[in-house]
Amino acid sequence: MKTYLKLLALVVLVAGSTLLMSHPAAAETTLDKVLKEKKLRVAIDVGNPPFGVLGKDGQPDGSDVAVARQMAKDMGVELEFIQVPSTGRIPALLAGRADVTIASISVTTDRAKTVMYCNPNGALSIVILAPKSTALQKPADMVGKRIGITRATLEEATVPKMAPQGTDIVWFDEIGATIQALLSGQVDAVAMTSFAGKTVADGNPDKQIEPKLTVTTAFYGPIVRPGDFELRQWINTWIFLNTQNGTLAAIYKQHTGLDLPTLPTF
Amino acid sequence: MSGGVSAFTFLYLLEAVPWTLLLSGVAFLGGGVVGLLIAVMRIVPSWPVRWLATGYIELFQGTPVLMQLFIVYYGAAVLFDIHVDAWTAVVLVFTCYSGAFLGEIWRGAIQAIPRAQWEAAACLPLSFRKQLWYVILPQAARISIPPTVGFGVQLIKGTSIAAIIGFVELTRAGQLMTNATFKPMIVYPTVAAFYFLICWPLSLLAETLERRIDANLGIKRRL
Amino acid sequence: MHYVFHFDVVWDHFPELLNGALLTIRLSAIAMVLGLVLGVICAYQASAGPGPVRQAIKLYVEIIRNTPFLVQIFIFYFSLPSIGLRLDANTAAMLAMTINLGAYASEILRSGIEAVPRGQVEAGRALGLSRFQIFRLIILFPALKTVYPALASQFILLMLGSSVVSTISAVELTAITNSLQSTTFRSFEFYFVATGMYLVMALGFRASFIALYWLVFQRGRGA
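Output (structure tokens, whole complex):
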């Protein structure tokens, strides 16, 4: 009987010390680590057109994906994509699975409490989309309708605030599900970026999806963990240079069809 | 992104199947080791050890797998400051989950062995550990094969939950393909068909083994 | 990275979590009752029904038991509208859970039915009872008593499995937890508490089932 207790104590001790010993040495900065290991891990969301999509060949594509590729190339390191769903964009960064998240994270004060924003690399607007036949001209028309929204997005932060009482908001974990819900008629309308909306409309001409209301416009930028000032500074410098030489504008135009607006800096 | 299913769609789904099988296999093997430990811990004379094993089983059988995944994937990393990627998270969770269920199955099998066997082994004389290893476990192993295979099927189906944290196995591949093709009526039933083709033969195997062992041992099937 | 726990945020939103738990209980309880009824009907038809019906039920059971629940609810919610059948999220979840449980319950009951002594059935036939009367009066009650533990386990698995219906926007504890943690960024704290709530619910259901067993099967009833 005593032997088992001793064995148990030994197992617990070994397990406990292994966990404690796995605490990494935190002397170097994230930028140092990226340069030393020659690998930049970028969290992306491939279910979020046009910023991140899965191409026909199964490889990630999209405007933010293209930005990440160029960034890694200019940094002279290898690129590793960490694919996450919309709800995982910030947690993946905070948990250390990625060094930076480039997934159209709109700038909001709430998010700024937990992550550090780099200068914006693009702009988007959140619109409410519905089939042509649905009557939705003003916010009051939302009453009694089911509006599909994706969690952990800008539309989650903004639409419930402007939706009148009596709107039935339906929540999904990722934009793919929200899109499916609209196409299958499970919801009357959805809120998402105008770009995503355009992709959905173009891919389903028979459904005649069109934007009805604009909820808000926002700039989005890459995010890093609190404290990674060196990495943030490098990314800001990179964004400055690539705004000047037109690379960012070219990528933006290629994937969204629009001209890149003047990007603010902070 | 355009709509429409192509050969690429099916190929993409097919290529995800090995990931489902790999995850299931690794979790099954890992869970097997854990399960054996738990099963033995449940029958030793020491009550704190039994208590611990019971607590482990209650925890993993009494909480949703999805929640276990969320906690490990989103939580454990910040807690212990270690990098947990999707693969590590799913392997860890499904191993612990398998360990709990396999532990219960094997404990049941061990306890199904008649007391007389234990007593005869003690008379030989063999220590508790030797009784277990040379006399009891071989017999228990035989009885436990059908429900163990049955659990294998549960595990393969259970790995579909890994899709929710973005791990690309068969179900997630289905979600991504639905997003790319806008044809859920074709993609999801295809995904279901793939699972069926994998699981059904195993289920039939479990049933066949069950009938054979029941007949051989003359033991009424325990419920 | 130094993480500071903020469980106070969770306590602020506790009423919402509690509401989510109640929704889970309600969803699961209704699906348990309906699923059991479906299972009884299928078990009866599987042994006493005409040939084609028996085949259809076997097909239904095998498909449900060899495909993941997550894929089943995706098909109910995303795929069916393409052929004209549109169910809202909560209805789709309820239906999927009922159909899922029905298949498992019918299999579990089948083994319970087989365990009823042949002599009882023959006695019923000798008395001139119809097949249906034999099932209702002689077989059903003892079968339910025999398989009660297996059924109770399956019910609890169903309740825990209900957490994945959050992916089709059905409203229950997991969905509410997801919404709360994505707006407050306190993922670990919320998932930890929600997991605890599931554990409490699982134990609660188990206790209720034990009490129910005593009430229905143990109070002076002959069979």
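The first helix of chain B runs from residue 7 to 41.
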